[in-house]
Design a protein that fits this description.
4-stranded antiparallel β-sheet, mainly beta
């Protein structure tokens, strides 16, 4: 099992926590009160820095309950394995009401994901597939 090393940068910071066995994400907590008006976005401090295991990256994603109930969505969200600064969560309020979350709230989840190291090769043609260049909406509605 890979290790996620965590450094507290703030005395009230909570390390990321997996609430239940089988959960993919680790909950991230704020070290500040969050108030977002409709349409407003903000980088929210977690008060922690992490050391992502080699060959992995961190992906910051929405908490489903906050997304559904409050309209909160995470923007940006990739943490490279060589980044050692504070983890901040960029939240935007897509709802119609102001959202207020107290200090210490679970604001996002962190997934640790392996990635493929690839070399980039410029070519004149790509291989053929059944789908080809058909993009947005090309597979139909239902």
């Amino acid at each position: 099992m890979a290790e996620l090393k965590v450094k507290k940068l703030h005395p009230e910071a909570k390390p990321p926590v997996r609430k239940r066995e089988g959960d993919a994400g680790l909950d991230l907590y704020s070290v500040e009160e969050v108030v977002l008006k409709p349409g407003e976005r903000r980088a929210v401090s977690t008060g922690v820095a992490v050391e992502i295991p080699p060959g992995h990256f961190g992906l910051v994603k929405d908490r489903s309950g906050l997304a559904l109930k409050e309209g909160l969505h995470c923007l940006a969200g990739v943490i490279d394995e060589n980044y050692r600064g504070e983890v901040k969560v960029v939240l935007i309020n897509l709802g119609e009401q102001e959202v207020r979350l107290p200090k210490g709230s679970r604001i996002a989840q962190l997934l640790i994901i392996p990635y493929a190291k690839v070399s980039v090769v410029e070519v004149g043609e790509l291989s053929e597939t059944e789908r080809g260049e058909r993009g947005f909406g090309s597979s139909g509605v239902s």
